[in-house]
Design brief:
alpha/beta, 7 strands, 3-stranded antiparallel sheet, globular, 4-stranded parallel sheet
Length: about 170
Amino acid sequence: MSADTNPPVRFIADRMLGTLTRYLRFLGYDTLSANSIRRGNSREDTLILGIAETGGRILLTRDRELARRGGTGAVLIESEDVLEQISQLLRDRIIPESLIPRMQRCSLCNTPLRPASPQEVAGTSYAPKQKSGKNFFWCPICRKLYWMGSHAEHLAERLRYAANVRRDPNRC
C-alpha cells in the first residue's frame, strides 16, 4: 500500500501538551486536545483513552501512568520543550521529516480550514496590509484568518531546528 492510501496519523494530546497540539495542527495533523474535556472530570484519563481507541488516534502524554494504560497506542513525551517534543516524534518515526507548516487546521479548535472569502479577509482587522500573492484561509468556527506570513516562516525555522536536533541530539 502506498503512503498516499494510508490513513493520516491522528492524535489526542493531554492537557500538558497544548503547545505541541498547536504545532501539530500547524503541520496539518488532526490533533484533539484533552482541554476539550471538562476540567475536574474524575474519568478524564479513561475518556482520553476511549477517544484515542475509538478514533484511531495516537495518545500523546507527559503522564507515565496514562502512557502505560494506553499501551502501544500511546507515546510518553519526555521533554517539556516543544522543539524537543517534535524531535522525539521525528526520532520515534511517529511523524515524517516533512515539517512544513500547512494551513489545513485551525490552531485553536482543530477545525479544517477553508479558503477565506475576500469579505472575510477585508473584515479582519489583523489581516496584512499587503495582500497580493498571499493565500488566506478561514476557520468557520473560531472565525480566525490564517495566511503564510512571517509567523509561519518563523515556525518553519523552529521546525527545521527540531529536525536537526533529531539528527544530532547533542546539538546545543
